[in-house]
Amino acid sequence: MMIDGLARILVFQGIGEVISKFVFPLVPGPVIGLVLLLAYLAWRGGVPEGVELVSAAFMRYLGVLFVPAAVGVVLFWPHLQRQALAIIVALVVSAVATVAASALIAKLLSRGGSDAP
Amino acid sequence: MRPDLPAIHEIWVYLSGSPLLALILTLAAYQAGVMIYERTQLNPLANPVLIAVTLIALALAALDMPYATYFEGAQFVHFLLGTATVSLAVPIYKGLPSLRARLLPLAAALLGGGVTSIVTAVVLARLLGADETVVGGMYAKSLTAPIAMGVAERIGASPTLTAVFTVTTGILGAALGRFVLDAVGCREWWQRGFAIGVAAHGIGTSRAFSVHAEAGAYAGLAMGLHGVAGAIVIPWAISALR
């Protein structure tokens, strides 16, 4: 089941990479793969069990996939020392402001008479 | 006559030439991070990614192992980021009914959050005297890592620097999100999850899933939508502004 799902997702990733390389260089391959997989799911009218399993596993363990790149971050930081203050302030304030803005907008607009269940 | 057991450094040389050591290090450090995270009752400040990265950086320093050697092995884990990005189609697909029902608040929250993320980071970095290379790395930082790096290449920014800011943003959003959401009085799980997904992509979504299933689903939806929208809009907006 898992293998079937992973194979299908990899096929979409592959098609996405090829299209990105030769047709739409402005959009990253995984994004094209995502859109194609979404179109496939809509056309099919449901999520195949294997794809569902693999996707659920990815969502739950997404964090670990960032670790190899994040280790590079730690080693990269010393090179940014001169601008560390600007970078840290910009990143912290921006992260806090983004969470606050998205949450407040969602909250205010859904209170203002949305027909959401 | 019994052959001599290989000396420890031979085992070491053999292992460091294969991806095994880096993979074991990556997974074991993350597992340790998850255990600490659970031991602290899911305290957002005990972020598993942050703990894993700290442990690995210490291990690399202790073993005198260059990052390039580590990454050569760990790239198998890293590669799956792209695959995980494609599989975001599933939470988006499953979120379509709720997206339809809550189209206005969700679309507005995504747009408002995306714009806030770029404007605050770029303006602050510039005001505080960061150079153009650093400012360029700020544009795509709230998108999920593989998309952010792809966008960075397309807008002529440094993909490495963008990855640095993206991962830092993810950890910050996951660690601080709860306090911000409580401060602005946001209580609905779907709103909390969506806001974290917009701001802190995959690392935030991982955190959201560990706290509440509905929050996780909305975080995945937000991360996917932000990734697709950002990948299309950011390069276009930047080339239009130039």
Average pLDDT of chain A, rounded to a whole number, is 88
Global geometry of chain B: globular
Major sheet size, sense and barrel closure of chain B:
none
Class per helix and strand makeup of chain A: mainly alpha
Largest interface, by Cβ-Cβ below 8 angstroms: which chains and how many residues each? Answer: A-B, 79 and 114 residues
Q: What is the count of distinct domains of chain A?
A: 2
The number of E-state strands of chain A comes to: 0
* Count of separate structural domains of chain B: 2
Number of helices of chain A: 5
Helix residue percentage of chain A? over 70%
Distance between the termini of chain B: 76 Å
Estimate what percentage of residues of chain A fall within beta strands.
Answer: under 5%
Report the span from N to C terminus of chain A: 34 Å
| Helical content of chain B (DSSP H or I, runs of 4+) | over 70%
What is the number of E strands of chain B? 0
Q: What is the average of the pLDDT values of chain B?
A: 89
| Fraction in beta strands of chain B | under 5%
